[in-house]
Amino acid sequence: SQKVVDYLKLRASVGLVGNDQIGGKRYMYLPDSYKVNQAGYNFGYDNPQNIQSATEDLLSNPYVTWETALKKNVGVDVAFLNNRLRLAADLFHDIRNDILITRKVIPGVMAFSSSTLPPVNMGEVENKGYEIEIKWNDKIREFRYWIEPNISFARNKIIFMDEIPPTEPYQAETGRSTNSLLGYLTEGFYSEDDFADLSNNVLKDGLPVPANPVYPGDLKYVDVNKDGLISVADMKFIGYPTRPEYVLGLNYGVSYKGFDLSMNWTGALNRTVSLNGYYRIPGAATGVRAIFSYMMEERWTPETAEIASAPRFSRKSVTHNYMDSELWLRDGSYLRLKNAKVGYTFKKSAFLKQFGISQLSLYATGYNLLTFDKLKIVDPEFNDSASEGYPIIKIYNVGINVTF
What we know:
This protein has 404 residues and is mostly beta strands.
């Protein structure tokens, strides 16, 4: 008989699950069907007292039902080398049908908008990927060690979303991942040489005309559709989605006699973060909020024109400079030491037995100890960089366990 494989299990599953969540609506078929008119109407002659009335608000959809997801999975569990090496691998493929959406393509002759139409079962999204987990557990005399790396990959694609045909084909969300980012491509900053008449903000011939007045040090956008104008038609999908495609993990530990050490690492790859609000605009939209040091260091000035990575400081150019663009994208990949523990256990100690103690353990733990990332400005796991978020917290604990 073979002596390589100690355990082998093949797995396959298929199932249909449902979801009816659509943002807190109590009844999907008749959500908020009317609203109270606070102004109301008065009746009779010389009667100043208004009576509240009700008007129809949202239309109903008696045929609405929950969305469904057809989930398929194949996997394998295998062990080698006297069960010291174990491997689990899975491939999955999901199709979500009848996703609850609000219609966007509405004939102009209909006096409706997306806000007055009910949810309908029309959306469809495909999701596929894999998960791999490896475990190695071994012992050399009194020294035991284990390592457990894992990786998962998932990529989705919008099959149907009732999308209004965009101005340009490259702006279509259908066929792309959810949470994709749309923005302008950039090519540096305007200099005085780009102006035919600087005093009147007239650019030289051949340069695309922006929607707002520009000055030296302002951001220069790419005219993607080559129409000679900078407009929303020039926005493209840029970077990776905000949700990481790869999620990484690593558990590691060793023990020797009474000593033990363990740690847990987490990470993510193929993720883009878009800086917004406070982290993009000096002073934020109101101009009275904080100005971060990196904004000062990276801004364009006549002296830093060759190395600047952010536009000049100017309130009059806020509308132009801080639109969504690749300039404000950051690599959201990271590697973090999430947890770590080190300890020592005293066992069968004659000294401790004098006090009725059979075992005593001393330990120290840490949480969020190290982070390696390219973002630096905010925590890489921070999802909404448009809001103020509480800084990541490092936690240290020291403890003792006593067994009598």
